[in-house]
Design a protein that fits this description.
It is a single chain. This protein is about 55% helix and about 0% strand. It is an all-alpha fold and about 180 residues long. About 25% of the residues are buried.
Length: about 180
């Protein structure tokens, strides 16, 4: 998800950060399972991909914190997940910006929900006789979108699709029709 592997910390943290591309059952990744699922539910898949893009952008912007905190971040995440949400910061971390720790932990919590869904989608992709996780997909999308909004991760207003270039490439001058083209000597 845009965060370097080396020096991050525990392998479980690395696995979580790579949830979109990590192989699962039958070698299906979350993204490859979504490709299959898009054949039946394109809107839902587009919504989850938007969530993934928002998470990737948010985590990429915190790459140095993730790398620097590594094992302590994972310890705090496990305590955060296990201890319930009483609004306090877990003790193992002390970042310069007090809210920074909380945002990282919130992002990991959202990512963990997407990761769990990835397991279900991979199982379905491997064996389409397994019931598709439609309700779970809807719950994760709603939860993740609400939480990303709550922690202030911006939405991609372009719909996540790269914009088409219109007009000439940067730095290329197109002569207006009234001008004569330059003559080559």
């Amino acid at each position: 998800m845009g965060v370097p592997r080396s020096g991050i910390g525990p392998s479980r943290l690395v696995e979580l950060l790579e949830c979109a591309e990590r192989p699962r059952v039958g070698d299906w990744t979350l993204r490859s399972a979504l490709t299959r699922y898009a054949q039946r539910e394109p809107r839902r898949v587009a919504d989850l991909l938007t969530i993934l893009r928002r998470l990737e952008a948010a985590l990429a912007g915190r790459r140095s914190d993730i790398t620097a905190l590594g094992p302590r971040l994972w310890t705090a995440f496990e305590a955060f997940e296990g201890g319930g949400d009483d609004g306090t910061e877990p003790a193992p971390l002390d970042m310069a910006a007090p809210s920074g720790t909380r945002v990282l932990l919130d992002l990991l919590r959202i990512l963990a929900a997407v990761d769990a869904l990835g397991e279900r989608l991979a199982a379905w992709a491997e064996d389409p006789a397994v019931e598709a996780p439609r309700d779970e997909l809807d719950r994760v999308i709603a939860f993740a979108a609400d939480e990303l909004d709550r922690v202030g991760i911006p939405r991609d207003e372009s719909g996540g699709r790269p914009g088409r270039r219109r007009g000439p490439a940067a730095g290329v001058r197109i002569a207006p029709p009234s001008e004569e083209p330059p003559r080559h000597r």
